[in-house]
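Dear colleagues,

As part of the handover before I leave the project, I'm documenting each prediction I ran so the next person doesn't have to rerun anything. This entry is a single chain, and its sequence is reproduced below.
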Amino acid sequence: MIRVLLVDDQPLIRSGFRAFLDLEDDIEVVAEAANGRDGLELARRHLPDVALIDIQMPVLDGIETTRRIAAEPALTGVHVVILTNYGLDEYVFDALSAGAAGFLVKDIEPEDFLHAVRVAARGDALLAPSITRKLINRYVSQPLPRATRPALEELTSREREAVVLVAQGLSNDEIAYRMVISPLTAKTHVNRAMTKLQARDRAQVVILAYESGLITPRNS
C-alpha cells in the first residue's frame, strides 16, 4: 500500500485529490494539511511514502517544507512531489534543489497523476526526459558556480558515465543502450552513484552533475 500525505491550502484541491486517490486499491491517503508546518508534523507522525506538497502555502511554503523534510534522517523514505499551477518556473527549480523528487502541474491527466505517485513511491525518476532537458537548459542559461564535491572521486568510471547520461535526461533503458549493458545494471550504476553523491533522486543527480562541473553545457 502506497501511503500518501496531501499538503495544500485549498480544501477543494485536497478533497479532489483524496477522492481520486482513494479509488485506487494500492494507494491510501493517510493525512492532510493546509500548510507546510502542519504537513511537516504529519510527515513525522505518519512517515508517508509520498508527500504531495503545494509550492505556495501560508505559514510554511512548499520549498521550505521540502527542505526540512529532506534534512531529517528519519524522513529519508518520504518522497516529496511538488504541486504547482505554473509548470516550469523558478520556484520549481528551487524545490528540486531543496530535495523534491519531482513536480506535477495540477491540471495533469488523471492516469499520469496516478503513474507519478506510484513512480515516486518506488523512488524512481519522476522527471520526464523533456522536463530534465528544461532543467538542463536552465543551467545552460544561468550556470551555477562549480562546487568541489569529494564524493565524485568515489565514483567508478561507469558510475560517472551513468551520472553524465542521467544529467542529459536519459532514462535507465536509454542509459543501458548507450553503455551497452542491461537495464538492471544501468539502474545499479545509477543507484550506487546516487548513494555516493547522497542524492535523494535523479533530479538531485542532475543538479549535482552541473554544480560539480562533471557535466557542462558543452557536453550536455
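The first strand starts at residue 2 and ends at 7. The mean pLDDT is 82.

All the best with the project,
I.
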